[in-house]
């Protein structure tokens, strides 16, 4: 993958020779630079604040309140952790977008690798969750009998996922550097290998896992549509929601970078740079969307959230909490007769 903050490193394309344009195109270029100068830092700040609060809350609930009953629960705990690491890098990029890069080469290399680490860790964890849900739904009896064994695999799977993602991030770490144009810029500057590296990373870290998820979910859909019971169909909606948000937010940005790395002429198109900037913002928003999804669709998450609120002494001031709890108890009663492993998918 090329520089995760590609739009920040694009000041090197300010050479008027790239554009070979009359005055109006030069003005359009200046308008884009002004747009990017304010738009991305604002996005970074919003994602940082919302992502820090939301993912910290999710992580606290997972550690202190959530009972890790399945492999999926173990894997899910790594998603907010990866997002939390990522959002903590955004203040650096916000400052650099407004001013310039002042944090040195080591920090530059590290932060360039963090986005890639977050992207592939999240993608691979979602793939592992897909495999686990495939076993739970399609091979429910076998999965139930091997539940303890699958739980023992959890730590090994998580460690392997993080190690593999770190290896995928090495090009950003190795070739990231600080260069001076009109100001100091932290970027991924090795153009000779960027296309090859990006193609390899996207193949093994995105397209192959995506293909695996499509195949598994196709079978899961077929199985659930033939099953009776509301809870199974509700689980079908929930399981797609988390994965769909990841794919829809991440695919445009990575495809735009892949296209740009193969065709230098796109550097001359102002509209394409707008596309890179906007799709990058959309990709980063995912880091603060997952906690919102958990809160709205996760019965266990909401129940544990109210336990946390009660423990810190805020519950008497929240009159609506009883309604939330009543709704959750009703949902829990309705689903009690279902097979726990097969129907608790993504209740979080």
UniProtKB/TrEMBL annotation:
Q: Which InterPro entries match?
A: CCR1-9-like, Chemokine_CXCR6, Chemokine_rcpt, GPCR_Rhodpsn, GPCR_Rhodpsn_7TM
Entry-linked Pfam families = 7tm_1
Q: Which domain of life is it from?
A: Eukaryota
Task: Provide this UniProt record's keywords sorted from A to Z.
Answer: Cell membrane, Disulfide bond, G-protein coupled receptor, Glycoprotein, Membrane, Receptor, Transducer, Transmembrane, Transmembrane helix
**Record domain G-protein coupled receptors family 1 profile: where:** 54-294
Annotated TM spans: 38-65, 77-98, 110-131, 152-175, 195-217, 238-259, 271-297
User: For this chain's UniProt record, which GO biological process terms are given?
Assistant: calcium-mediated signaling; cell chemotaxis; immune response; inflammatory response; positive regulation of cytosolic calcium ion concentration
Annotated compartments: Cell membrane
Report the main location listed first in the record.
Answer: membrane
GO cellular component annotations of the record: external side of plasma membrane
Give the membrane topology, semicolon-separated if more than one.
Multi-pass membrane protein
Q: Which GO terms describe its molecular function?
A: C-C chemokine binding; C-C chemokine receptor activity; C-X-C chemokine receptor activity; coreceptor activity
Protein family per UniProt: Belongs to the G-protein coupled receptor 1 family.
Q: What is the protein named?
A: C-X-C chemokine receptor type 6
């Amino acid at each position: 993958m090329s520089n995760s903050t590609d739009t920040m490193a694009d000041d090197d394309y300010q050479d008027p020779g790239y554009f070979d344009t009359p005055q109006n195109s030069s003005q359009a270029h200046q308008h884009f630079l002004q747009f990017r100068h304010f738009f991305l830092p604002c996005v970074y700040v919003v994602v940082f604040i919302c992502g820090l609060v939301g993912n910290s809350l999710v992580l606290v609930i997972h550690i202190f309140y959530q009972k890790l009953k399945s492999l999926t629960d173990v894997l899910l705990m790594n998603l907010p952790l990866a997002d939390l690491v990522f959002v903590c890098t955004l203040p650096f990029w916000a400052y650099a977008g407004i001013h310039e890069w002042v944090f040195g080469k080591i920090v530059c290399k590290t932060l360039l690798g963090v986005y890639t680490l977050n992207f592939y860790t999240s993608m691979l964890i979602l793939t592992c969750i897909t495999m686990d849900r495939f076993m739970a739904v399609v091979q429910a009896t076998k999965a139930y009998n091997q539940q303890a064994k699958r739980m023992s695999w959890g730590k090994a799977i998580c460690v392997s996922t993080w190690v593999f993602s770190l290896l995928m991030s090495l090009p950003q770490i190795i070739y990231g550097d600080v260069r001076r144009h009109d100001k100091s810029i932290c970027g991924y500057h090795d153009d000779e290998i960027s296309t090859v590296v990006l193609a390899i990373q996207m193949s093994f870290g995105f397209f192959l896992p995506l293909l695996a998820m499509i195949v598994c979910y196709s079978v899961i859909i077929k199985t659930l549509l033939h099953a009776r019971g509301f809870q199974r169909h509700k689980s079908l909606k929930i399981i797609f929601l988390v994965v769909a948000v990841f794919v829809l937010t991440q695919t445009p940005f990575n495809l735009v970078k892949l296209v740009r790395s193969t065709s230098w002429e796109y550097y001359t198109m102002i509209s394409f740079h707008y596309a890179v900037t906007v799709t990058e913002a959309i990709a980063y928003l995912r880091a603060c969307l997952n906690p919102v999804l958990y809160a709205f669709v996760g019965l266990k998450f909401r129940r544990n959230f109210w336990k946390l609120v009660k423990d810190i002494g805020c519950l008497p001031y929240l009159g609506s909490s009883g309604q939330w709890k009543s709704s959750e108890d009703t949902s829990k009663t309705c689903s009690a007769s279902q097979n726990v492993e097969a129907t608790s998918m993504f209740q979080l």
